Amino acid sequence: MSVTQTGDKAAAILNSxxxxxxxxxxxxxxxxxxxAEVGIKSASIHYHYATKADLAVATAKDYRETLCxxxxxxxxxxxxxxxxxxxTLFVATLRDQGGxxxxxxxxxxxxxxxxxxxxxxxxxxxSQYKWxxxxxxxxxxxxxxxxxxxxEAFAKMFVSGLEGAMMVSRAISQxxxxxxxxxxxxxxxxx
Amino acid sequence: MSVTQTGDKAAAILNSxxxxxxxxxxxxxxxxxxxAEVGIKSASIHYHYATKADLAVATAKDYRETLCxxxxxxxxxxxxxxxxxxxTLFVATLRDQGGxxxxxxxxxxxxxxxxxxxxxxxxxxxSQYKWxxxxxxxxxxxxxxxxxxxxEAFAKMFVSGLEGAMMVSRAISQxxxxxxxxxxxxxxxxx
DNA sequence: GTCTATACGGTGATAGAC
DNA sequence: GTCTATCACCGTATAGAC
Lengths: 191, 191
What we know:
The structure is a homodimer.
Chain A: H1 8-24, H2 31-38, H3 42-48, H4 52-73, H5 79-97, H6 102-108, H7 115-141, H8 151-171, H9 176-189
The structure holds a DNA duplex.
């Protein structure tokens, strides 16, 4: 008598897929990997998610919605502190999980992605760009953020820049570089 | 009577591997893809490069050396213009080839990369960070670049940020976003 | 140097029993 | 819902003829 709409197994599959994709990308994880983690056989996953693309879309959608909620719940004493807190979400993901942002990982795989998954990637960055640009505009109203910045332009640079810093710092085994990049971004945005 | 050390076929294979990897990553291209482009069979590639890892290492090394040469040959009237010219190399690659920087692509695949290839990725970013940091320090001496910036920190943010912007802008089919990000970087670095 | 043939493992996906 | 069994690929890599 489950009350939740998605069963425990479906949620476990989603979670496992998310972690694996954040580590190894869309082409770097398999149904068999997920099955082994969840404790079922790979054929059983198709019952919950018909295709790999379906699983990836569901995972990405869930990830985006969760991140949007978390971002909207962030509180800080100023716009730049809010941006810093947002960036710290990325820092924490890399430090605690050793994984990248799912949006960034899928962006890297974009050229080999099923169309439906790529559509989700577009929605992901749309949502993040909007959130950051909104914070920036408010900070400009209070005079805290440089007025000569184009909020939309900086938002794109900031989000995609964090993705790149995350990716590269992990690749060269210098995870602290991500934090350095974040701090530099914050330094530059202040009026 | 070839005078070059690497034969025409070896060079053609290297070139094809480079283009394919810049588009689809290490796991996204196969010996069969390269073979089809070069006009031989996939088994023949092993004669020139014993394993896929060997081919990738050779490709990455060649890419790094070439990029270092190109960067060192860049001329500009100021440090920020030099950084802009450097960034325009990335813009041109995305616009003309539709491909990413090989360093960035391999960074994204880092977790599934053979060790020797990953070592090359580290060398790649070492070299790029050094080049950019050097330009920045010179610009700070002339007073053109913000003196309160840490050259090494900005170099890391700039290079890895460009990689991310390149990756994301391609993924969301907004290639012009890369140029926007580059211009914002340049704007922020000026004193 | 390049070929054909092949070994061998991994992949997503399906059919049908339970 | 999950299983076993199986399929039709595709991947790297090797052996040996030419």
